[in-house]
Amino acid sequence: MSFREKSAWITLVSVLVCFGAYFVELFSGLAGDRHFGGLGSLHLLLLSVVALVVLQLVLTLIASLTTPKAGRGLADEREQKIQWRAQSLGYRVLMVLALALFAPAVFGHRGVEMANFALLAVVISALTVSVAQIVMFRRGV
Amino acid sequence: MSLPIANHIRRLRFEAGEMTQSQLAEAIGMTRQTVAAIEAGKYSPSLEAAFRIAHVFGVGLDEVFQWSA
After folding, report:
1. In angstroms, what CA-CA distances link A103 with A19, A27, A107, A108, A120?
2. What is the phi/psi pair of residue B41, to 5°?
3. A121-140 pLDDT, tens per residue?
4. Residue B54 neighbours by CB under 8 Å, 6+ apart
5. Quick one: three-class SS letters along A38-101?
6. Of B25, B29, B43, which has the smallest distance from its Cβ to A141's Cβ?
7. The domain at B5-59 falls in which architecture?
8. Which pLDDT tens digit goes with each residue over A44-80?
9. pLDDT value of residue B56
10. Contact yes or no for A141 and B1 at CB 8 A
11. pTM (2 d.p.)
């Protein structure tokens, strides 16, 4: 497995774990009729971001140590093509989700709640980029 | 995903003293995984990369790649 494919897996796993836990906690609070726009969600967000950074650093260090030096240089043309296509797809997903943000606004969500929906859109877009990269690395481009 | 371009890289590597994918990758400035993808027909290289591969083996482009559609 190339270093860049490992990086895509690292992003996928770390974002899923850290922000998955964040949004599960957030929306379970919403289902339990707790308000999720308060300061508590900001503390949880900070914790998730720190966990994400630490997890990515550790996993990237492991990936670096287990990948030959020749495979860790600049991206070659195939890897660049995969990155461009995946980012293009992620951008389109983000645009659609940004438009979909009108829905919670119509239902009266404001402030931190809307910021959380926007964050969810960014997270889904990042996951799309990672999954698209992994699929293209595996199936060809 | 199967591409309509066939290649003879595996044979050419064998004829070039059993050159490894890593050695070819280093010679053309790519990763071993990209060479493997080209060889397996999962990626069509740019014209420049195709010429580099042909140059490594000292043959013409048409001896490395062929249109197979």
Report:
1. 22, 16, 7, 9, 14
2. 75, 20
3. 999 999 999 999 999 999 88
4. B60, B61, B63, B64
5. CHHHHHHHHHHHHHHHHHHHHHHHHHHHCCCHHHHCCCCHHHHHHHHHHHHHHHHHHHHHHHHC
6. B43
7. Orthogonal Bundle (1.10)
8. 889 999 999 999 999 999 999 988 776 777 889 999 9
9. 96
10. yes
11. 0.83
Residue among A67, A74, A78, A84 with most chain B CBs within 10 A, to mutate: A78
- Chain B touched by A76 (CB under 8 Å): yes
Question: Hey, are the CB atoms on A141 and B46 less than 8 Å from each other?
Answer: no
Q: In a mutagenesis test of the B interface, which of A6, A9, A76 is the best target, namely the one with the most B β-carbons within 10 Å?
A: A76
**Complex ipTM over 0.85:** no
Q: Closest by alpha carbon to A41, among A132, A113, A118, A105?
A: A113
